[in-house]
Automatic annotation (TrEMBL):
<protein>
    <submittedName>
        <fullName>ABC transporter ATP-binding protein</fullName>
    </submittedName>
</protein>
<feature type="domain" description="ABC transporter">
    <location>
        <begin position="6"/>
        <end position="238"/>
    </location>
</feature>
<dbReference type="GO" id="GO:0015807">
    <property type="term" value="P:L-amino acid transport"/>
</dbReference>
<dbReference type="InterPro" id="IPR003593">
    <property type="entry name" value="AAA+_ATPase"/>
</dbReference>
<dbReference type="Pfam" id="PF00005">
    <property type="entry name" value="ABC_tran"/>
</dbReference>
<dbReference type="InterPro" id="IPR052156">
    <property type="entry name" value="BCAA_Transport_ATP-bd_LivF"/>
</dbReference>
<keyword id="KW-0067">ATP-binding</keyword>
<keyword id="KW-0029">Amino-acid transport</keyword>
<dbReference type="GO" id="GO:0005524">
    <property type="term" value="F:ATP binding"/>
</dbReference>
<keyword id="KW-0547">Nucleotide-binding</keyword>
<dbReference type="InterPro" id="IPR003439">
    <property type="entry name" value="ABC_transporter-like_ATP-bd"/>
</dbReference>
<dbReference type="InterPro" id="IPR017871">
    <property type="entry name" value="ABC_transporter-like_CS"/>
</dbReference>
<dbReference type="InterPro" id="IPR027417">
    <property type="entry name" value="P-loop_NTPase"/>
</dbReference>
<dbReference type="GO" id="GO:0016887">
    <property type="term" value="F:ATP hydrolysis activity"/>
</dbReference>
<dbReference type="GO" id="GO:0015658">
    <property type="term" value="F:branched-chain amino acid transmembrane transporter activity"/>
</dbReference>
<comment type="similarity">
    <text>Belongs to the ABC transporter superfamily.</text>
</comment>
<keyword id="KW-0813">Transport</keyword>
């Protein structure tokens, strides 16, 4: 990991007249997993939507030196930004394979797409066994695997994950995070993950930021935040 790959400077965002983010500043290093922690309503989902072009923003967002703010989601996808929203967002009437291929919609390298389909199925063997099955018939955990697999078909430089553990059994959640860590280690994909399970997020992350009321209130290495009295008391349920 070297240098800041994603930089966010004085970022403001919201919906209509309702402001949600109020001058957010943060940085994520190249090849890092960065956890975004905070209570419900803190603006975590809005932050990911701002990074993927889904809400209007004011302020600076740069990915490897390229300005992202103001670009639409399809343009950001072409720059390598993949967003897995809360609730998975799979296309339930389509098959697993059709969902995965949709993840490569910006690409024209047919051979590379076929290779990446095989690569994603290697990460998620359960998807290989269900390629012809409609996505709506999958379990919740399988749909989350499909959503992440579809994002990986983009060959993202920046992967945004919004509450990947939501509604899933602990064993399924642990497997998902194991795969995310493997992708990060093997492909050097930079990951920003919003996660209510702060223990799990800090276990896999290199860096973390705590968001409250639309503002960053704590930042640092995941190890430092795990040992921080305020974080432990507010988000981990114990005292250091």
């Amino acid at each position: 990991m070297s240098g800041d790959f994603l930089t966010v400077t004085d970022l403001h965002a919201g919906y209509g007249d309702a402001r949600v983010l109020h001058g957010v500043d943060l940085a994520v290093g190249r090849g890092e997993i960065c956890a975004i922690l905070g209570p419900n309503g803190a603006g975590k989902t809005t932050l990911l939507r701002a990074l993927s072009g889904m809400v209007r923003v004011r302020g600076g967002v740069r990915l490897d030196g390229t300005a992202l703010a103001g670009r639409p989601p399809d343009a950001l996808a072409r720059l390598g930004v993949a967003h897995v929203p809360e609730g998975r967002g799979t296309f339930t009437p389509l098959t697993v394979e059709e969902n995965l291929r949709l993840g490569a919609f910006t690409r024209r390298d047919r051979d590379g797409i076929e290779a990446d389909l095989e690569r994603v199925c290697a990460y998620f063997p359960v998807l290989r066994a269900r390629l012809g099955q409609v996505a709506g018939s999958l379990s919740g955990g399988e749909q989350q695997m499909l959503a992440i697999g579809r994002a990986l078909m983009l060959r993202p430089r920046l992967l945004l994950l919004d509450e990947p553990s939501l509604g899933l059994a602990p064993l399924v959640t642990a497997e998902l995070f194991r795969i995310v860590r493997t992708v990060n280690e093997q492909e050097r994909t930079t990951v920003v993950v919003v996660e209510q399970n702060a223990h799990l997020a800090l276990d896999v992350a290199h860096r973390a930021h705590v968001l409250e009321s639309g503002r960053i209130v704590l930042s640092g290495s995941a190890a430092r935040l795990r040992a921080d009295e305020q974080v432990a008391r507010s988000y981990l349920g114990y005292r250091v």
